[in-house]
Input
Amino acid sequence: MPILREVAAYFALLMQIGILIAASVFLGFYAGSWLDRRLGTGMVFTMVGVIMGVGAGFWTAYRTIMKVSKNSDDAKDR
Output
């Protein structure tokens, strides 16, 4: 039974990371698209928003993975 709990925890972590990245990209796209419509600039801000969303998503995913990794290392030391 503990193995299933561990697998479920890792699966939940993967789902959380996927949602974080997707939400960041979507928000960047939406904000950039909104700015482009308001300013009439084609797709300049949309592309900038998507790139920033990807960067923010991966940065957040990295921080989440490091936090979980540190917590699991601390638990193993006990």
